Amino acid sequence: MAWSIQDGFHPKELTPGDAIRYYVFPCFLVLVCTPGSLFLLWFGQGKDRPAPDASVFLGSSFAWTVVAVTLAWAYAFLRIPSAKCHGPTTYFGQTPEYQANGVLYFWASLIAFVFCCALWPDLPVSIYEEMPYIMGSLNSFALLFCVLLLVRGKYWPQSKERIGKFPLIYEYYRGMELHPRIFGVDIKQLIICRFGMIAWELLNLTYLFAGLRLHSYNAGFLVSVLLQSIYLAKFFWWEAGYFDTLDIIYDRAGFYLCYGCLVFVPSIYAFSSYYFVAHPPLVSDVTAWVVFGLGIAFVLLNYKVDYEKQVFKNTGGKCEIWGKPARYLEVEYSTTSGVKRSKLLTSGFWGMSRHFNYVFELLAAYSWAVVGIHYGAWPFLYSTILTILLVQRIFRDEEKCSKKYGKYWDQYCKRVPYRLIPGVF
């Protein structure tokens, strides 16, 4: 049973599925993710590297400096005067505000990092070799940060939302508040967009530069990093649209989101590039650039799918998609302030499946890993985990939409019958 966030948790009605969802699964992730992320980074540097000892969990002075500088840089760009954008108003009346300077932040970060590498040529190799300790620092910071989010959300919430009680480990895992702020900035934008996503990009460049210094030019490695960089540049270009996604609208600031972006993104999302430093791709130059062409197509198509929905939203449905007037289903849903009306898009890519944007996102992820196919499954770690996460997200999204829209969601599913892959799933 999935209890509502307002009514909370009722232990007397606990089923085996509830025990897994509210106790076992959160405990498993908290206990496994910390050592798992450190093992991956040790393993990725090659089997001849000595195993890290317990001190790795404490980090090092260099590791804490890297973490602190990155966080300070991210925070600074959220305090720079710039245009604002807003996310959807919640059912309890909160309208989150964000800084709309993502493109500036992305390019400024790249230029600043390249400048630092020019000043200190050994910096990429130093970061690469210190990554287990950097990950130890991030683990320590993320675990404590999520505790602070839990305590503040339970005892000093910033919103008027009424939240029922759930098991403490589940509240830690899920988070308490939808849009908490700290020192004048939105926590989700700070941790997800301005730390996690830029860390992914800068680590990719770090590993590419480290590979060049330790080995030599490798077309497969370069193609993999270029594809990821283009994908991430697209993310910052589209950042305002991201604030309308499930991560922002429904997921709370807790272990799942914040630990994920502080630890999982730097360790797992950038793992293929990290792995390629010690295991350079073996594909030919021609094959690598063919993969690049396909990857570019997948990234652009992923953006095209998201852009269709963004245009549809911004025009209130008064637009053309694929040369024809947009088709949609008019729906109603209830909030604390009354009945609201909305539109669900049913044409273009969004008429092919309810989550067709994930198709090209997955294809893009597999494209920048496939250059390392000679090494088996390890280069595909991120794309495999992403597949699992997105399928799980589909079911979570549809559960929430079914509760929100009721009979209208059933009508929508009849118009767009497939969840992800037309004709298959």
UniProtKB/TrEMBL annotation:
It is a multi-pass membrane protein. Keywords: Cholesterol biosynthesis, Cholesterol metabolism, Lipid biosynthesis, Lipid metabolism, Membrane, NADP, Oxidoreductase, Steroid biosynthesis, Steroid metabolism, Sterol biosynthesis, Sterol metabolism, Transmembrane, Transmembrane helix. It catalyses: cholesterol + NADP(+) = 7-dehydrocholesterol + NADPH + H(+); 7-dehydrodesmosterol + NADPH + H(+) = desmosterol + NADP(+). One of its GO terms (biological process) is brassinosteroid biosynthetic process. Its EC number is 1.3.1.21. One of its GO terms (molecular function) is 7-dehydrocholesterol reductase activity. InterPro entries: ERG24_DHCR-like. It comes from the Eukaryota. GO terms for cellular component: endoplasmic reticulum membrane. Its main location: membrane. The keyword NADP applies. The chain crosses the membrane at residues 20-44, 56-78, 98-121, 133-151, 191-210, 216-233, 254-276, 282-303, 355-371. It is found in: Membrane. Belongs to the ERG4/ERG24 family. This is 7-dehydrocholesterol reductase.
